[in-house]
Specification:
two-stranded antiparallel ribbon; alpha/beta; disordered N terminus; binds iron/sulfur cluster
Length: 291
């Protein structure tokens, strides 16, 4: 017997909401177990399908608090650049959807406590750290399926950890950034299949149809620096080859690629805004002084 209630989507794809619902309570790895123990939020991607997709490393303290990607300091820098480039259609997500961090300790090895601004209770303070490869691997079926469902025109990898995981090889991000590459993700995780009875179905005997090599989908991929790295290295650096300028140039390239796709798809010119790096830098600095 086969599942004879065909759920055939036009493109054979489930919705992003369905994917989120499948993973929201996940505790497959230690990051999820910690998230549940501290009542932190799962941080799924958000934004517009068929646009520019940004993939970072993982949520930080602000993202875990609000359940939204890129809402902390580095997110503010990224969003300032996107606003300057007039990019309204984008999607943001991360390699892992639960915060990767470890308790901060004092020189004696004792956990440092901080007062929770909401509960006013003392709690262990955590510092962010890159997710271990085993956690990235655990979360990769969600990421690959998220990419497939978003179906972006171009993907921007933010930081070495995200770029190495997506390119599946070691890179020197300060040399490789800005180059256009391709990445492959398993496609059609729930690709409709013709059942022996001649009907279309996404499952056979209630088992989802597995991705195959033949179903790989390729996407344009531009590696770049993580905004947190720019903030760490010093946003004040205004050298022509400064990390800020490199990030801005790489994101501008991705936006130009997307706009050129739109021009073909829409059959009409798309206004492309590209202010100078100095103007964008000044607007970012001014926005941080307002806060
Ligand atoms: S990081 Fe991913 S795999 Fe790990 S618990 Fe969270 S959702 Fe699950």
């Amino acid at each position: 017997m086969v599942d004879d209630a065909p759920k055939v989507f036009p493109e054979g794809r489930k919705s992003l909401e369905e994917l989120r619902a499948e993973w929201v309570a996940c505790d497959k790895c230690d990051l999820g177990k910690r998230r549940i123990s501290v009542d932190g939020q799962f941080v799924f991607g958000t934004g517009t399908r068929r646009s520019v997709m940004f993939i970072g490393e993982g949520p930080g303290v602000e993202e875990e608090k609000y359940g939204q990607p890129f809402v902390g300091r580095s997110g503010h820098l990224l969003r300032t650049i996107l606003k300057a480039l007039n990019l309204k259609d984008f999607y943001m997500t991360n390699l892992v959807t639960c915060r990767s961090c470890s308790p901060r300790v004092d020189p004696q090895g004792q956990p440092i406590l901080r007062k929770n601004p909401v509960t006013k209770q003392n709690e262990v303070a955590y510092q962010d750290e890159p997710p271990l490869p085993k956690y990235i691997t655990e979360c990769s079926p969600r990421l690959y399926e998220e990419i497939y469902l978003v179906d972006p025109i171009v993907i921007v990898g933010l930081g070495a950890t995200a770029c190495e995981a997506l390119l599946q090889r070691a890179i020197t991000i300060t040399r490789t950034h800005g180059e256009t590459r391709q990445i492959a993700v398993p496609g059609a995780v729930h690709r409709p299949q013709l059942t022996p009875g001649g009907k279309w179905a996404r499952t056979i005997k209630k088992v989802p149809i597995a991705p195959t090599e033949q179903n790989q989908v390729f996407y344009f991929f531009i590696p770049t620096l993580h905004p947190a790295y720019i903030l760490h290295k010093g946003i004040q650096d205004r050298d022509a080859r400064s990390p800020f300028n490199q990030l801005y140039a790489d994101i501008s390239k991705a936006v130009q690629t997307y706009n050129s796709y739109l021009e073909v798809a829409l059959g009409q010119p798309v206004a492309h805004t590209m202010p100078s790096d100095d103007a964008v830098w000044e607007s970012y600095i001014a926005s941080t002084q307002e806060d």
